[in-house]
Amino acid sequence: MSRQYRFHQLDVFSAEAFLGNPLAVVHDADDLTWTQMAAFARWTNLSETTFLMRPGVPGADYRVRIFTPGGELPFAGHPTLGSARAWLAAGNTPQNAVEVVQECGIGLVRVQVAGDRLAFAAPPLRRSGILDEQLLMTIVAGLKISRSDIVMHQWVDNGPGWCAVMLRSAEQVLKLQPDMAMLRDLKLGVIGPLPAGREALFEVRAFVPGLGVSEDPVTGSLNAGLGVWLIRTGQAPPEFTVSQGQALQRRGLVHIERRGADIWIGGDAVIRIEGALHIP
User: Fold this and answer.
1) How far is the C-alpha of 192 from the C-alpha of 169, rounded, in Å?
2) Phi first, then psi: what are they for 126, rounded to 5°?
3) Beta bridge mates, 167
4) CATH architecture under which domain 133-260 falls
5) In sequence order, what are the residues at sequence separation of 6 or more whose Cβ sits closer than 8 angstroms to the Cβ of residue 105?
6) The CATH classification of domain 3-122+266-279, taken from the options 3.40.50.720, 1.10.10.10, 3.10.310.10, 3.40.30.10
7) Which of 83, 98, 108, 254 would bridge 242 by S-S if both were Cys, CB 3.0 to 4.6 A apart?
8) Helices (H), 130-205
9) 136-184 tens-digit pLDDT
10) Does the annotation count 257 as an active-site position?
11) Which entry of 48, 99, 203, 215 is annotated as an active-site residue?
12) How big, in percent rounded to 5, are the helix, strand and coil portions of the chain?
């Protein structure tokens, strides 16, 4: 006998169909084992698959576990937005009328909803500061660039382990053809400024070969870390938009905004598939 689970697949960070980052969501997954979750995430072969469960701490509306094909993450951005959208679509109501509160491996994450667009409050950085030269030389070799091409660099780790480098231009970012074997132990974000007059201020790419996905199409956690770094150091205005996914024939847009003490990371999250998952 197999058990049936409610299932959604969503398009996150794009209002245009099939141009964002897909997310698989399994509901009421409390009885699934880590092995079953990991196996299903490998089978979907998406950058992330999430499993929704009853909350385990006061104040949370639900608990989520987040898996890549390579294992489990304590936090990720597009799974946060997509999971909140799927949880609401399943007929659930948050305790707080203003926002949904998600429990995950880093604690509680607040999510606000406005139509198709959702936004989460960027979690605090677990690690910040500049990268050491030995790590930078690994990045230079892996990206096949010169050390002088990196104009700024920083740890922007809010859970997954992100480090980031800024190149001179978005054009240079888009032309990268990395050696993934060199970058295997890293979660690396690369950002470069777009020409004036474009909808977005920066182009971003995210390389995560160690997670079983060479490049993530559109990445909420990375852009949350980048937003905290760039806004707080004055390298970006309090409100701006990032483009990600062009190198993979996607058109993701991530909206970053400082409101009071919080930096919010927003994007569209649209359900594309719904049905039932059968697991033996």
Assistant:
1) 5
2) -85, -25
3) 150
4) Roll (3.10)
5) 65, 66, 72, 73, 74, 75, 159
6) 3.10.310.10
7) 254
8) 133-143, 170-174
9) 999 999 999 999 999 999 999 999 999 999 999 999 999 999 999 999 9
10) no
11) 48
12) 20, 40, 40
